[in-house]
Amino acid sequence: MSYTVAFGGERLDRIAKKLMQTEAQGTVEALLDSNPGLAAIAVSGLVPAGTVIQLPSAFSPKVTNTFTLAWE
After folding, report:
1. pTM over 0.70
2. Cα separation of 12 and 44, whole Å?
């Protein structure tokens, strides 16, 4: 599956949020790994309009650390 960046450009973390439902847990890194050269064209975090981004075929979010609150 691929995604074409809309007119005006978009931030990479917002693209990850839109396509993968989160910008955390390694999604931005997975997009960069799936698209060699994407980091080089993303100036100040903005991906230029018309850029085609390939979604990672097999992505599983990184496990986040769990924590216990002091009052639990």
Report:
1. yes
2. 10
